[in-house]
Design brief:
Helix content is about 30%, strand content about 30%. By secondary structure, it is an alpha+beta fold. It has two domains: about 1-155, 3-Layer(aba) Sandwich (Aminopeptidase), CATH 3.40.630; about 170-369, Aminopeptidase (3-Layer(aba) Sandwich), CATH 3.40.630.30.
Length: about 375
Amino acid sequence: MTEAIGEAALRDGRPLQIIRVTAPEREWASRVLKLVSGKGALWRSVIRQALESGLGDLEVCFYLAVIGDDPVGNVTVHRSPPPDSIGMILNVFTEPSYRRQGVAKALTQAALGDFEARGGRSLYLTTRYGGAAFRLYLQCGFEAVGESGDMRWRPSGLAEEPRFAERPATIREVAWRDWPALHALYLTEEGSYLRSLHFYQWGRCGYEGEFPLLMAAMASGGVRGSQVLVTDTGVVVGHAYLARQPAWPTSGAGYFEHLKRLWAKLRWVRGDVPKLRSLSLLVPAMRLIRTRRACGRLLEFFVHPNFSSRAAQLLGSVGADEDGLWAVADSEAPERAALLEAVGMERAAMVPRIVPRAEDFMDLNVFRS
């Protein structure tokens, strides 16, 4: 469905029409995909799927700046269904010849107004902290989530409510509709510091880029049993799954790839980490490789502390593996370690100083079943 929702003007005075394309909408697929040609193959495949067949109950809206018949800019909003109705802004792009003309700001403001008018409750996005885009979003009413590039916007007249207040909750399989809600869950300050070894997530980290990887891994069999704990208001408060873990391969080439991924994550999360300091990961990571035997899949999970009483049930819902399971807990998460022991896992190893935190590193406890 396509609808004109507003007009604006470039800084040079040329008129700009703003339209909303609600997926699925095959007629616009080629034109929208042209605007996101710089994205990786996985992201382009997700966008193509949204335009051609939709992403289940996840609402995907492309806000396009159009001059004549040509779209010159895009802002994409993914929104979970009511009653939660939270969203994420993704894929912000302006054609190079139209940059610094106010296209991104006009599109963002139009998207925010439309999101609010149609009942949206909260919007998230991720950008480089302190950069030009970050400053633009501050002007549009977004607030930084901590000292990071994660940002959040709420309609001005909407009362703030505790998102993770204790409520009845049920367990079901992960679906596309959970993308914004999982992002909000992983952004919370509360809970264990190490969120995922599979995706190298620690601290307040979000789930914007990880969710498409998760869905692709679920489709290929690399991840199975992916479950969420969801309240009666649609808030995702827990997540668990079983993954094949390639992080510690025995080959030299595979291990080098692991270090590259870990270093890239360090540079994104902590740009001030000296390069030589990152080499201190080499020795403990090699020790960790030696702890990895044929022990099945990695059990990954993150549950908000207010719902810790349901954590064991969530872990039990993901299933088992014929070769057993293994899991990890950082040294400052005794409640996570206790939960793993409560579901029948045993502490098998401890790897010192491998989980980065502030200016230091924490130990990692490895559990096996």
